[in-house]
Specification:
It is a single chain. By secondary structure, the chain is of the alpha/beta class. The protein has two domains: 130 residues, Enolase-like C-terminal domain (TIM Barrel, Alpha-Beta Barrel); 135 residues, Alpha-Beta Barrel (TIM Barrel). It is built from ten helices and eight strands. Helix 1 crosses helix 8 and helix 3 crosses helix 4.
């Protein structure tokens, strides 16, 4: 599907250049003047994570993803260590991380209790579980996080078995986001039609290009599932640019991730996208 995405995106690019207009005009026109993006705050412990969340709040972010080191684990997903900037593309091979479900489930509710107390009620908080839990464990975590009112809990469990998300829904009202590794509309069809998720995060480069991503967004809109396309730096500057071209014309887009290389990308492509923290 990535090969199809490359061809599809190239064809849309050619068509927009021939028409001499932004791609979103060919897709139905602008439906928004901006979109909320979230910053990536991380720390080696709760105190450091809270400080980083507050720093993002001071920079103007309205939504912030919080990831923290877990006591007793040396290296945890989403935590950069000594560098404040989290970068998923940190080597030629995927990084290895320590894991303990018990320690993680004990630590995470307290983390978000501290973060929510620090930032107040108006900042949107997000968290990436990174597919680490079983459905019943994800339900337990979501229930524990309900008082902190997360914007979304991302990838709580592996999504190959879409029906497994029913167990999470039965136990928590914490919103669920999933989809960054999906390759087609069939990967999320059941999740959307049974309203087992709240946000679909398929990305242009993995899910068949602009044409296929529009079909996913249209299906999701019928079931009040909003979009929040994945856009990490390890997806390439082209993927970032494609995401920006879809943003103005997607009425169901709720939030998308900020990118530490966004300003460099915007200088490389012709775009009407304006970059700001919020």
């Amino acid at each position: 599907m990535s090969a199809i995405a490359a061809v599809d995106t190239a064809l849309w690019d050619i068509k927009a250049k021939m028409a001499n207009m932004p791609l979103y005009q060919l897709l139905g026109g602008r439906s928004r003047t901006g979109v909320m993006v979230y910053g990536h705050a991380n720390g080696r412990d709760t105190a450091e994570t809270v400080d980083e969340v507050l720093r993002h709040q001071e920079e103007g972010y309205l939504a912030i993803r919080a990831q923290s080191g877990v006591p007793g684990l040396n290296k945890v997903y989403g935590v950069s260590g000594t560098n404040r900037l989290y970068e998923p593309a940190d080597g030629n091979l995927p990084s290895e991380h320590d894991w303990s479900t018990e320690k993680y489930l004990r630590h995470t509710p307290g983390l978000f209790e501290a973060v929510r107390e620090a930032v107040g009620p108006d900042i949107h908080l997000l968290h990436d579980v990174h597919h680490r839990l079983t459905p019943i464990e994800a339900g337990q975590l979501g229930k524990a996080l309900e008082p902190m009112r997360l914007f979304w809990m991302e990838d709580p469990t592996p999504a190959e078995n879409q029906d497994a998300f029913q167990w999470i829904r039965h136990h928590t009202t914490t919103p669920i986001a999933v989809g960054e590794i999906f390759n087609s509309i069939w990967d999320c069809k059941t999740l959307i039609e049974k309203q087992l998720i709240d946000y679909i995060r398929t990305t242009v480069v993995h899910a068949g290009g602009i044409t296929h991503l529009r079909r996913i967004a249209d299906l999701a809109s019928l079931y009040q599932v909003r979009t929040g396309c994945h856009g990490a730096t390890d997806l390439s500057p082209c993927a970032w640019a494609q995401r920006c071209t879809l943003t103005p014309g997607c009425p169901t887009l709720a939030c998308k991730s900020s990118c530490p290389t966004a300003k460099k990308c915007s200088r490389s492509f012709r775009t009407t996208t304006a970059l700001s923290a919020a």
